[in-house]
């Protein structure tokens, strides 16, 4: 991905800016409009490789056309850590961390769940606690089978 930002001088709102991306294999153009402070920004996914980027301001009855110099951009493939820190993967990582913390808290402190909102209590009720894991086996009397019996209080 490539993040491109720029600003017109003087700062003028509503100026049309064409961004031209070109490589040896591909070329594309994006059209943007400047904001209140004359700035523009754009994020685009590009194929990995070397790209030439040029911003061109379209002229009108009041302003002359203008162009930036060629800016070279090198796009590299994302690594596993880069992918984990970009949406939607970031949301999955955060959700997994929250679920992990909740499960540990549920295991360690069973009484804490009673202070949570009702939907979360219903979810946590399905997760075994340390106390519910402590069961003893009771002989059922037939063929060496055992049944689980909750701890007597």
Write the layout of secondary structure elements.
Elements: E1 2-7, E2 16-22, E3 27-33, E4 39-44, E5 49-57, E6 66-67, E7 71-75, H1 80-84, H2 89-108, H3 118-125, H4 130-133, E8 135-139, E9 146-150
Antiparallel strand pairs: 1-4, 2-3, 2-5, 5-6, 5-7, 8-9
Mean pLDDT: 77
**What's the main sheet like?**
5 strands, antiparallel
In the CATH scheme, what's the topology name of the largest domain?
Answer: Immunoglobulin-like
Q: Can you count the beta strands?
A: 9
Structural class: alpha+beta
User: What is the rounded distance between the termini?
Assistant: 61 Å
Describe the fold and architecture.
By secondary structure, the protein is of the alpha+beta class. The chain folds into two domains: 2-77, Immunoglobulin-like (Sandwich); 84-150, no CATH class. The chain contains four helices and nine strands; from the N terminus they run E-E-E-E-E-E-E-H-H-H-H-E-E. It has helices spanning 80-84, 89-108, 118-125, 130-133; strands spanning 2-7, 16-22, 27-33, 39-44, 49-57, 66-67, 71-75, 135-139, 146-150. Strands 2, 3, 5, 6 and 7 form a five-stranded antiparallel β-sheet that branches. A two-stranded antiparallel ribbon has the order 1-4. The protein has a two-stranded antiparallel sheet with strand order 8-9. Strand 2 and strand 3 form a beta hairpin. The protein is elongated. It starts with a strand and ends with a strand. The model has no long low-confidence stretch (mean pLDDT 77).
Task: Write a compact overview of the structure shown.
With 153 residues, this protein is α+β, with helices and mostly antiparallel strands. The protein is built from four helices and nine strands.
């Amino acid at each position: 991905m490539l993040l491109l930002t720029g600003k017109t001088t003087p700062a003028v709102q509503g100026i049309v800016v064409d961004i031209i991306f070109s490589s040896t294999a591909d070329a594309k153009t994006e059209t943007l409009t400047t904001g209140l402070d004359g700035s523009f920004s754009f994020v685009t996914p590009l194929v990995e490789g070397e790209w030439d980027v040029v911003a061109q301001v379209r002229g009108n009855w009041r302003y002359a056309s203008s162009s930036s110099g060629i800016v070279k951009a090198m796009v590299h493939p994302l690594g596993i850590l880069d992918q984990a820190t970009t949406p939607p993967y970031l949301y999955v990582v955060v959700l997994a961390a929250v679920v992990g913390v909740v499960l540990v808290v549920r295991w360690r402190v069973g009484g804490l769940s009673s202070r949570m909102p009702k939907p979360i209590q219903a979810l946590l009720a399905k997760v075994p606690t340390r106390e519910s894991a402590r069961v003893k086996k009771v002989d059922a009397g037939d063929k060496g089978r055992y049944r689980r019996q909750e701890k007597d209080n």
